[in-house]
Design brief:
It contains eight helices and 15 strands. It has one domain (9-47, 72-304): phage-related protein like fold. The longest helix has 29 residues, at 100-128. It has 309 residues and is α+β, with helices and mostly antiparallel strands. Strands 1, 2, 5, 12, 13 and 14 form a six-stranded mixed sheet that branches.
Length: 309
Amino acid sequence: MTPDTKAVHIDSALSNVSIQYKNADLHAEKIFPVITVKKDSDTFFRYGRQDWRVYDDVRAPGTRAKRFEWSIATSTAYALVEHALEGQIIDSVRDNADEPIKYESDTVEEVSNTLLLRLEYDVVQTLKNVANYGSGNNSTPTTSWDATSGSTPIMDVDYAKEQIRKGIGRKPNTMIVSENTHRILRTHAQLLDLFKYTRGGTLMPDQIKSAFEVENYIVLGGIYLNSAEGQTETVANLWGNYCSLLYVNPNPGIKQLTYGLTFRKQGFRQVKRWREEAVESDFVRVSDKYQFYVVAPDAGYLLSAVVSQ
């Protein structure tokens, strides 16, 4: 049954539940910060490197200062896409629930989590693709970091950081690894040696962050079912044996450099609700409208096969 459009309305309370809902294991919006936009489609700009040039800026008395010309290197159109899923709230189930209101909010949270997982999955697939990094900004360590000897994760990461610095004029501030890679780095001899007088056999995330000199150390520990619906369930890690170095601007704006951005329509995520008497149920549709883009490929570097599995 198609809902009567007159009966469909935005449920502000449940919309707030969806907006406030967070899954601590999902990090897409930390990697591609959100910019709120009013239009479903528009244009964003990539600026040139004219501010890297050393200008003759001396002004003699009574003369005008030399004019500084800035340029737009490229312009790219964005187009938002709506992502939506619906949940059914059955009268008889709600009537027998100990906490009827929580039954509704739980439904919204479950649907919201599924939408967020989709965003996380898409962001991870983007980060795994070497085509989404600057020319030459990818490599494989000579020795994997879980080798019994000879691996040099600090040197490998330092090399990647230097390539980014040469491309954008600043060092990356974000390092992304898998749960498995994180466990290996916690006990890696090269890192432990830096803290041998202050720490025992394992390192904490803040110490690993300090060792690699990054502000953000993200462990992508999310999982998903990679089997088709109805088939035997098989679980897979979202992030594999990669390490991504990025510059992620903590305060993204019109002229601020950052690896990627998520453009989200103002007012989303939102929850719409309607009644269908034929099935004695209310329905809630959680929808989001966004699109994310790599806006500065040179602000990233991908290390592949950093561990053997």
